[in-house]
């Protein structure tokens, strides 16, 4: 069974989890940690999404939420602040209104970003064996 390394978004404890897991309990803080990947392809509003997985907002997707994720790719519209341990990607035609804190940021021609960016390379360790399905 394949495993991947993640960092708990509650306490930063490094965990080794199955690549098929949707969530785990952190051995450091005993909190539930989601490792699920999300795809938003229509209108969706929620207070917060937290996952050590990836999130994709498709070209028809509209998401209103604060995010704490590993990777996020925006093709549609995202309204809310983003904290990403990995990479934030805005494709051509993407619209993001909110502040970004990430390890890496890629903004393609034609993308619109309204907010502040804080790029902190190396602050969070990026697992080399993390291969998100949506990226």
Task: Describe the 3D structure.
This protein folds into 2 domains: 1-35; 37-119, no CATH class. The protein is mainly beta. The protein contains no helices and 15 strands. Helix content is 0%, strand content 53%. The radius of gyration is 14 Å and the shape is globular. The protein starts with a strand and ends in a 16-residue tail after the last strand.
The shape is globular
State the end-to-end CA separation: 22 Å
Mean pLDDT: 89
> How is the main sheet built?
11 strands, parallel
- Percent helix: under 10%
Multimeric state = single chain
Task: From the alpha carbons, calculate the radius of gyration and give it in angstroms.
Answer: 14 Å
Unreliable segments (pLDDT under 50, ≥5 consecutive)? Answer: 124-135
β-strand percent reads over 45%
**Helix and strand succession?**
EEEEEEEEEEEEEEE
Structural class: mainly beta
Helix count?
0
Total E-strand runs: 15
Number of domains: 2
What brief labels describe this structure?
135 residues; mainly beta; 2 domains; 11-stranded parallel beta sheet; two-stranded antiparallel ribbon; 15 strands; 0% helix
Concise summary:
The chain is mainly β. It has strands at 3-7, 14-18, 23-25, 32-34, 38-40, 43-50, 54-57, 62-69, 71-74, 77-79, 82-90, 95-97, 100-107, 112-114, 117-119.
Reconstruct the topology from this structure.
Elements: E1 3-7, E2 14-18, E3 23-25, E4 32-34, E5 38-40, E6 43-50, E7 54-57, E8 62-69, E9 71-74, E10 77-79, E11 82-90, E12 95-97, E13 100-107, E14 112-114, E15 117-119
Parallel strand pairs: 5-7, 6-8, 7-9, 8-10, 8-11, 9-11, 10-12, 11-13, 12-14, 13-15
Antiparallel strand pairs: 1-2, 3-4
